[in-house]
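User: Here's a structure from my thesis project, written as structure tokens. My advisor, Dr. K., wants to see whether a designed sequence matches the one we expressed. Can you design one independently, without my sequence as a hint?
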């Protein structure tokens, strides 16, 4: 599929998940993310589509043997954090096929602090709507953006992990790399990394389902 769109293909994570879906009028990125989002719902792993050089790769986001320790007084230069509620969801209303409310899940403490930030779900056959709604609440709380500057290492790339130890800022533990910048300044190799406590992926669900005869359904 990627080669048909003119991309070289590199490492592609295997999942064992079979997808039967018709994709029309959607981007290659959305198709890839839909396939891996549905696989992730089954195997609980997280995936990232990324270019390495000219090659399109899909990797599993996990701890590897290239995970480095970055700590104050050694290779950590600076660290800063910021918080945002821009994408917060603290209440999810579930409707049935007749547009009747069947259940409402909420994060009461977040509502008390920030007001109601609501999303909606419609029940679908074969889908646990309560679990899906709880996942929306869990994945869309307060966003914390953590940026660190450190002595550079080529292993520090998006989709990878680092261990940070900085008692003054309270950063301590395993973090996932959301973005990376590699630069040389005055002859010193540096990284600027945006890191996250959570292992997140850009979840998508596009396309039409196919029934057992191969005919698409809505």
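Assistant: Designed independently from the structure alone:
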């Amino acid at each position: 599929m990627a080669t048909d769109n003119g991309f070289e293909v590199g490492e592609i994570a295997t999942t064992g998940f079979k997808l039967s879906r018709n994709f029309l009028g959607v981007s290659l990125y959305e198709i890839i993310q839909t396939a891996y989002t549905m696989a992730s719902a089954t195997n609980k792993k997280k995936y990232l589509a990324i270019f390495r050089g000219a090659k399109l790769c899909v990797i599993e986001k996990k701890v590897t043997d290239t995970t480095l320790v970055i700590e104050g007084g050694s290779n950590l230069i600076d660290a800063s954090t910021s918080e945002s509620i821009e994408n917060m969801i603290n209440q999810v209303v579930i409707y049935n096929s007749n547009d009747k409310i069947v259940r409402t899940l909420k994060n009461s403490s977040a509502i008390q602090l920030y007001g109601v930030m609501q999303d909606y779900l419609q029940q679908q056959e074969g889908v646990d709507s309560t679990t899906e709604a709880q996942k929306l609440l869990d994945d869309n709380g307060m966003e914390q953006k953590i940026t660190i500057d450190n002595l550079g290492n080529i292993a520090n790339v998006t989709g990878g992990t680092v261990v940070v130890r900085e008692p003054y800022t309270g950063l301590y533990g395993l973090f996932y790399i959301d973005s990376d910048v590699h630069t040389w300044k005055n002859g010193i190799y540096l990284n600027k990394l945006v890191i996250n406590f959570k292992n997140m992926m850009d979840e998508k669900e596009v396309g039409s389902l196919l029934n057992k005869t191969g005919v698409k359904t809505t």
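When you compare it with your expressed construct, this may help: The two ends are 24 Å apart (CA to CA).
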